[in-house]
Description:
There is one protein chain. By secondary structure, the protein is α+β, with helices and mostly antiparallel strands. The protein has one domain (about 1-195): Alpha-Beta Plaits (2-Layer Sandwich), CATH 3.30.70. It is about 25% helix and about 35% strand. It contains 5 helices and 8 strands, in the order βααββαββαββαβ. Strands 1-3-2-8-5-7-6-4 form an 8-stranded antiparallel barrel. It is globular and about 50 Å long. The two termini are about 20 Å apart. The mean pLDDT is about 95.
Amino acid sequence: MLYDLTILSLLPNTLGAVMPLLPETYKNFSSTGTPLGAFACEFGTLNRFAFLTQYDSVEALTAERARLMQTDNPYGIGQYIGGINSTAFKPLSFAKPIVPGTYGPFYEFRTYTLAPNGLADTEAAWAKIIDRRNEMSPLLTNMASIEEGPQKMVHIWPYNSVEQRVAARGQASKEGIWPPPGGSGHLTNLQSELFVATSFSDLK
């Protein structure tokens, strides 16, 4: 199983024109994958939407990317898009399959850049504490990129409120399990953004 995370950046002053089109964009986002969620950036770089799609194989993902390369109207909103960033990921060993449902509406996307050969130690450190951390607020997924270039690890945390996020992270820090002991030694860059699930997303 693979996941594709695609970030669409809209041109300035196009949000009003794009919003009515996005449900259809999401419905037809991939010809070979299963759309899981669509999210609008609330805190971070604005006018950006994150689309999470599941693929059963590398071949299915490759076929979809080949199709997109041949279109002059990406996602049916090509004239409004200022940038597209797509990354393929493989879930880490302790990550449960993503099941559509209501977990948010707030979703924190945390993107960590890993030093070369740093994934194994980082994954092992996370595996030791993730069960306890899930009791405070459940992890949607943690996944590592399989593209060329510096390896990224993206973990997505749903919260029903900003207050829930503060409480869960505070409790984890108080217990000394967050950040995961030994889990930061191979990180070179950390980024956090807060997204909100759209009304048409399967992950809400």
